[in-house]
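Suppose a colleague, Dr. K., hands you the sequence of a protein chain of 384 amino acids and asks what its three-dimensional shape might be. Before reaching for any lab equipment, you can write down a predicted structure in token form. Begin with the sequence itself:
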Amino acid sequence: MKKVKNYFRTNNTLSKIKFLAIVLIVLIFSIEILSFIFTKFNLLIINHEPAYVHKQGNKWRVENTPWGAWHKPNFKDQHSTECFDTNYQSNNLGARDNENYNKDLPKNSIVLIGDSFAEGYGVNLKNIFPEILEKKTNRKVLNFGSSGNFGAVQAQILYNNLASNLPHNELIYFFLPNNDFTDNDKRYWMDIVHGSRFRPYFKKINEKNYNIFYPSQNVQNKFLINVKSFLFLRLKSFLIQYTYTANTLRSINAILTKVNADKSAIISNPNLGTSYFFDDKEAINGTIFFSKKLLSEAVYLKRRIIVIIPTLIDIDLIQNGKSYKNLKWYQDLKQVSLETNTEFIDLANYFKKEEYKKMIFSCDNHWNVFGHKEVANLIIKKFY
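The predicted structure, expressed as tokens, is then:
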């Protein structure tokens, strides 16, 4: 009798497991189908195609340097989306260039430093800003631009550790208010997706000084954390590579991250604005400190230029009468440019909405071929 009871109990357990497995499979497929539909109609915050549809251009990217985001040396990669198809190539130092950088470079070389706009995200090498500037000025332009959330702390570390050691007599610094104020502020990197990334952050010492720090894990929990991180990153990679569900999950994460930031005791003001209208004073102070440090280290050069890059939304708001030039970040950067004898150029002063719309990709906010050409021509006209 006991054996009969055990038999039925075992069968019931198996039936429940099978039922739950079927429910789970149906749920997974339903989420994937809905994610596919939402993606195609651009209904999510993130609407990317899976990596198997388009090459993502992430194989050449690394985060194992003191400044975090960078590229593998002597590496080639491809990146394609709905609106561009480009090839990336790095040189001996990992910079985006088809020529090596060494001590034999011309003394009048120009160092370009900044994020994805300097790197030339989505555009082939011959059509990006540094290459156009190089050809039209007949001077070597060293491209130290990097995608992957690259802010002022990283720019200063990269210049100090690598770029400053090469022959050059000018520096061009691309500054993007849209994310440069938050790229190295740890408060904006506390969610599980971003928290595991290796990068430097600024740390306030007193009202006038900041230090650099790298988050460290508790030694006792290090192995467990690494296992969790490994499994999470493997799952994340699989979802991004093969599913539309990744868009749903990343969109949910973006919403939760914003909600958590708004509720945070550290970031207490939910109306901080974005890009040209950003007004988080702590994030601004840390970023301005390292921007000034970068430009001060280059003060012995013949020329320094800081280029402020707007988004299309910024230009639209500005044309509709919204003011930003009285905000803290703008006033502080202007003051830094005066103190370091740096040329200050704000692209929002030179392009109207309809023109700027033609300068960016239809599926992405980065400059297209026309955008790089227009900005290069503007810089050449003003300074060269």
